[in-house]
Amino acid sequence: MNVLVIGSGGREHALTWKLRESQLTEDVYCAPGNPGIAQEAECLDVDISRPEEILAAAQRVHAELTVIGPEAPLVAGVVDEFAKAGLKIIGPSKAAAQLEGSKIFAKEFMQRHGIPTAGFTVVESFESARQALGGFDFPLVIKADGLAAGKGVVIAKRRDEAEKTLDDFMRRKVLGSAGERLVIEECLRGEEASFIVLTDGRAVLPFAPTQDHKAVFDNDQGPNTGGMGAYSDDSILNAQQREMILRCIVAPTLAGAETDGLAYRGFLYFGLMMTEEGPKVLEYNVRMGDPEAQPIVMRLRSDFGELLRALVEGRLGAFEAHWSPSPAVCVVMASRGYPGKPELGKAITGTEAAEALGGVKVFHAGTRFENLQLLTTGGRVLGVTAIGEDLEAAMERAYQATGKIQFEGMHFRHDIGAKGLRRRGRARKRESRGGPTVNPGPGGA
Ligand code: AMP
Ligand code: GLY
User: Could you tell me the fold of the domain covering 191-420?
Assistant: First the structure.
């Protein structure tokens, strides 16, 4: 079958690369793609903010299946457009995509269906927002309702910080209409985990667990970004935790969606905080994570094309996914200035030397090709991803690979995976003391 992937980042490079390997795929296309993706697939020049253009591209290349990477086309209704035309696509409808498109919609959905999440209030004016601050302890969390490319969430430690954020979002409108209405919520403590599933609304296929690193600097310091790296290791969520997430979070989410007439289909990403009271949902994303997709596909042993075809043909429940027990680590290499305004147009060298190490794949995010030279063209430039027999080996390999790559002003975190090593260290200690052990369980399913 011919497949079309929509998007141009590291996630889409990972999806395209994995689909290229599939026994079922003939021609693989990506729109708009990037120079890394162009090595796996034919890239198409399409304005992906317009659902009708995505549909026209799928028809042009006879795509039997289209996979949407980013949230914007989903929120814009591309799946509804494909449904009308009778074409197969992976993703939720416009109505269901509101789970990511509107934080207020998501929080009210969770409240209505009893899904564990932080206590919150919705505010629609600056004055009511200021008053609402009194109902929370500090730190508290302020979230813009609409899509804000990772800039819409602020954790305010003090009242003055909170008031400044309210002023920025509601009066100065730094996020445009996305910040007109807000959620103010309780700050949860614990470790974060990304739990991503593929679902047809009933059957659920969980992917191997991952952990993102949102802050720009080591040890989770500095402002939040779209994600500076992620790793996948079975120790992130043990078998018991996974079972609890499936039962207390995933199942009621899908049942709630069905009750509300949303018929959820596609990837569904649960951003979780593992609190002392159990897992709670920080956010839903209606797509794969970026950079989580990169280590996930490195570990997936099953044919990705077959997996997606099983979903659209209603056979997902019978599909058994196989995962490599080896952990994978993705280190994002970013431009100087990111997550603020990045410096662009710098020459990139060493990606081939990095991949020559073996067990390494360099996924492109913000790159372009000009006069036979690879150049930076975004904040997040590359996702250097490695798989290894254990987490330490995967980290070592990923960092060896970043050492081969050069571009002016590049920066990256040096501790992607370090939380996993600490977690495994704690588990070993408990074991040697004879206490209860953490059972990593099988990856994913
Ligand atoms: P979100 O886009 O809602 O996932 O928020 C982005 C990041 O902000 C999350 O990955 C967390 O690190 C942090 N965050 C969001 N909500 C909360 C919360 N209620 N308590 C603590 N941290 C939060
Ligand atoms: N890595 C977080 C996200 O994809 O939203």
Answer: D-amino Acid Aminotransferase; Chain A, domain 1 (3.30.470)
